[in-house]
Amino acid sequence: MPLLLRSAFIGMLIQAISYGEDSRVAAFHTDPVEVWGSRFLIATISIGIALLLFTLLKYKGATAGPFSWGLLVVGVALVPLMSSGLGTLLVFDRAERVEFCESCHLTMKSFVNDMRDPKSESLAAVHFKNKYIPDNQCYVCHTSYGMFGTVEAKMAGMEDVYKYFTRTYPKVIAMREPYPNHDCLKCHAESAKWLKHDEHIAARDDLFADKMKCMDCHGVDHPAHPDSVRKVAQR
Amino acid sequence: MKNTAVSSGKGLLITAQILALAALALGLNFLIQTSGGTLFLFASVGPLLVVLAIVILASVGIYKYNQSHHLFTVETYSPGEMIVRQGEPGLCAYFIQSGEVEVLRRDKDQDNVIAKLGKDEYFGEMALLSNEPRNASVRALKETRVAALGKDNFVKLLGVLPQTKESVLQTVQERAKAAGAGGS
To answer: Do B50 and A103 touch (CB under 8 A)?
Structure first.
């Protein structure tokens, strides 16, 4: 048993040290804070688990002086509190990944597949394959600009996660609201490429006021989306 | 009454450790395999487990601290009720005010009576002086009233009353001699 525990502990530490070493991802495309934060956290949690198993097996719930109390405080309070705190920061970072979004938004599987398809010419796929958006593509396109956009997205995300696991989401899955222009314009508006087109200048006020939709003129966002299909049919 | 609390303290500490283990396992699961499910468990269930574990640990800690700082708390035990159990940590010394108790020592899965104590006698001092677990159990034979003195105050008492200390140490020696390896 102790040998098994030791092997498991060493395995977890190796996992911690090697975390983020993915040969398919170039080093400059990884966030060093995320990678080292994750390594540190995996190592801390592994040590916490080893400490708790040690105290459980050695003392079996008894306390024999300050040393055993110290181990208990570290194992039961300090390590879990630190893990929860640092882990929450990682939660915010990791909850922006495409893999994370698609793990719950199962109805959007076909959208994600299309986005990853190098042959697709949909707006999502063009942004993805050309790396116009380097990473977290779902999150970047579906989040409003600035700090409040992030806060809004995180709150909506927590609500989504809650609804998903309590099975209280509506049976007909639909967008909360029509896709807002400013989610496109936060990157494109006033860029040289955007200003080059007279149509943009002419429709500037309507576009900024969301009275005219970007998607009315620009291709298909997600081909699998019923709205996209309807719009294409109308053209 | 007190013994039940000490035993459940043991169970509570094990529970706190298991809760903390579960919270850490959820954290590891989230870090190794990030998804909506693992995030939900880590971000919502995990903190609840941690808070619960800390509350349990703090409650047991406060209870044990109060126990070892008892200043003559009077406790009453019914006949047959265990007052201290062999193997448990010593938190108090007991001074018998009325009634009678028997001191039992477990040997080869059998409890042997090694002494009987009555009014104005005391027990439970050895574990406090040696910092070892109780080396015998004590059970009430009659309705017994004891004054429990917490470890810290017991040690302080011996420090300020040298004659009492001498008397206690002599009793300890006699009990150890009588019981072969020790008394209660």
So the answer is: no
> Across the 184 residues of chain B, what is the mean pLDDT of every consecutive 10-residue run?
56 93 92 82 90 94 81 89 90 92 88 90 90 90 93 86 85 77 46
In B, residues 97-156, which contact A (CB 8 Å cutoff)?
Answer: 131, 133
As to burial, measured by CB atoms within 10 angstroms (0-12 exposed, 13-18 middle, 19+ buried), residue B60 is buried
Q: How far is A204 from chain B (nearest CA, A)?
A: 39
Instruction: Read off the CATH number of the domain in which B109 is found.
Output: 2.60.120.10
C-beta atoms surrounding A172 within 10 Å: 5
B131 domain residue, yes or no: yes
> In this structure, are residues B150 and B156 in contact, taking their beta carbons and an 8 Å threshold?
no
Taking the C-alpha atoms of residue A137 and residue A97, their distance in angstroms, rounded to an integer, is 8
Tokens (6 digits) for B98: 């009325």
For A7-62, how does the pLDDT look when each residue is reduced to its tens digit (9 = 90+)?
777 776 676 666 666 656 666 667 788 888 888 898 899 999 999 999 998 888 87
The complex scores an ipTM of 0.71
Name every chain A residue with its beta carbon within 8 A of the beta carbon of B12.
61
In angstroms, the CA A90 to CA A41 distance is: 10
Distance CA(A120)–CA(A106), nearest Å, equals 20
Q: Are B39 and B10 part of one and the same domain? A: yes
pLDDT of residue A171: 79
pTM recorded for the entire structure: 0.65
H-helix or E-strand spanning residue B103: strand B101-107
Would the CB atoms of B46 and A69 count as touching at under 8 Å? Answer: no
**Is residue B51 less than 8 Å (CB to CB) from chain A?**
no
Q: Is residue B124 part of a domain?
A: yes
For residue A162, pLDDT beyond 60: yes
